[in-house]
Automatic annotation (TrEMBL):
<protein>
    <submittedName>
        <fullName>MBL fold metallo-hydrolase</fullName>
    </submittedName>
</protein>
<dbReference type="InterPro" id="IPR036866">
    <property type="entry name" value="RibonucZ/Hydroxyglut_hydro"/>
</dbReference>
<dbReference type="Pfam" id="PF00753">
    <property type="entry name" value="Lactamase_B"/>
</dbReference>
<comment type="similarity">
    <text>Belongs to the metallo-beta-lactamase superfamily.</text>
</comment>
<keyword id="KW-0862">Zinc</keyword>
<dbReference type="GO" id="GO:0046872">
    <property type="term" value="F:metal ion binding"/>
</dbReference>
<dbReference type="GO" id="GO:0016787">
    <property type="term" value="F:hydrolase activity"/>
</dbReference>
<dbReference type="InterPro" id="IPR001279">
    <property type="entry name" value="Metallo-B-lactamas"/>
</dbReference>
<feature type="domain" description="Metallo-beta-lactamase">
    <location>
        <begin position="54"/>
        <end position="248"/>
    </location>
</feature>
<keyword id="KW-0479">Metal-binding</keyword>
<dbReference type="InterPro" id="IPR051013">
    <property type="entry name" value="MBL_superfamily_lactonases"/>
</dbReference>
<keyword id="KW-0378">Hydrolase</keyword>
Length: 265
């Protein structure tokens, strides 16, 4: 069942738990090998051989009745994520529990095009949310299209032809709901800001990166840029209200401690 909603300014935000389980396939391995750098004190948080992930999406409901879905999760048993995901996604069931049908969603924001965030946008070869505009950064689309034949291009982007709005940088997707470019994890990663809340996508993958933003994830496309982006996203979040919603942490919302100056340097 979905978590209790919260109000972020004028927007109701409902966390949707698509799946939970251990990282699988080629991504399986000790946490200490998946995250590098940082102090010994902070790296102590990375002990253990199993990384249990929450896979979370968010539904935003504006006062005007707009329904904006942030990320689409893993998809079904035949999705591009099935080779490594612990279980199929259950996003549509989570939405149903909130009283929302896929056809009612008017906007989908994909923070990036990794399969655990984008594969659920397509079901059996057709758009899961057929009446929604799908907002993606142009740099992300270009990256996938330039990567040669790949599952996301063939099984996600192409079935969404005519439904994708490729934006460049910051854009307001609904009154009071903004996407902001946040590259590093992928070239066109973006976050979502509304009121005091920032939905961080994969800018934050593990709680250790809140303690030490310099700790890098080995599968970031551009690790150094990802660190700089993480610092900036956390700085903006602290300045704007200090609340984040994460895709993979155990709890959907985290209240940040410290001041914006904590991310300088």
């Amino acid at each position: 069942m979905p978590y209790q909603p919260m109000m972020a300014g004028e927007v109701e935000v409902i966390p949707l738990l698509d799946a939970v389980g251990p990282m699988g396939g080629e991504l399986r391995g000790p946490l200490g090998e998946k995250f590098v750098g940082g102090s010994a004190e902070h790296r102590a948080m990375l002990r253990g051989d199993t990384w249990t992930l929450h896979f979370r999406c968010y539904l935003l409901r504006t006062r005007a009745g707009r329904l904006i879905l942030v990320d689409c999760g893993l998809g079904g048993a035949d999705s591009p994520a099935s080779s490594w995901a612990p279980v199929p996604g259950r996003l549509v069931d989570e939405l149903a529990a909130t009283g929302v049908a896929p056809g009612e969603v008017d906007t989908v924001v994909l923070t990036h095009l990794h399969s655990d965030h984008a594969a659920g946008a397509v079901t059996e070869g057709v758009a899961t949310f057929p009446n929604a505009r799908h907002v993606v950064q142009r740099a992300e689309v270009d990256w996938i299209e330039g990567a040669g034949p790949n599952a996301i291009l063939e099984r996600v982007l192409r079935p969404l032809t005519g439904l994708v709005d490729a934006v460049e940088g910051d854009a307001e997707v609904a009154p009071g709901v903004w996407v902001r470019a946040a590259p590093g994890h992928t070239p066109g990663h973006q976050v979502v800001e509304t009121g005091p809340l920032t939905l961080t996508g994969d800018v934050i993958l593990h709680a250790v990166q809140l303690a030490d933003p310099a700790i890098r994830y080995v599968h970031d496309e551009d690790p150094e840029r990802a660190v700089a982006t993480r610092r900036e996203v956390l700085r903006r979040a602290r300045a704007g209200g200090g609340l984040i919603g994460s895709a993979h942490l155990s709890e959907p919302f985290t209240r940040l401690s410290g001041s914006p100056a904590a991310e300088e340097g």
